[in-house]
Amino acid sequence: MWTTSNFRAEHIAPALALLLTVGCATQEPIEPDAPREAKRVVESRPHVVSGEPRDQHIEVAGATIRRAGEDPELLRQLVPGGAEAAGAFIIDVRLDRPFGDPHRDALMAITLDGRPLTQTVAISPQRLAALVPARELASGRTYSVAVTMLGDRAKTTSRRAIEVRSP
Which terminus of the chain has fewer Cβ atoms in its 10 Å neighbourhood, N or C? Predict the structure, then answer.
């Protein structure tokens, strides 16, 4: 009858002991007065904070909904190949005051009837725009438009939404 053995378990302890002794033997002792490795000095820079705290509500000064074909320049900013999105709508929102740096701060989003549009683009610190497919907007209907910063919507969503009629 053959006996079964676990080859790895039998030879791992001596191999581990050999590695430890070889590894410890190759390190040279460090003299007490020998120069040590230089400590890395981290230069601290003052943290630049945008002018507005992030827990203030963002108010809407004005908003428009128009067909994407009416503003080809804005359409190119929203969609690189803007020609295929010409049948969609653009929601253009102006804020009552600039709100931080749009490239550094949290993601700002236009909310359409309470639903955030995550494809919102900051055109400037005081202007946002979003492209909405034509199937999501009914012609001649009034929509509620507000602005929020994703992540902490309770502290930043507009207190009053603006009613805007789609074309």
Answer: N
- Is residue 16 within 8 A of residue 9, CB to CB? The reply is no
Tens-digit pLDDT profile for residues 16-31: 777 777 666 556 667 7
Q: In this structure, what DSSP letter does residue 82 have?
A: G
Domain membership of residue 7 (yes or no) is no
- Which pTM was predicted? 0.61
Residue 44 covered by a domain = no
Domain interval for residue 126: 60-165
Provide the greatest CA pair distance for the chain.
90
The answer to whether residue 33 sits within a structural domain is: no
| CATH number, residue 103 | 2.60.40
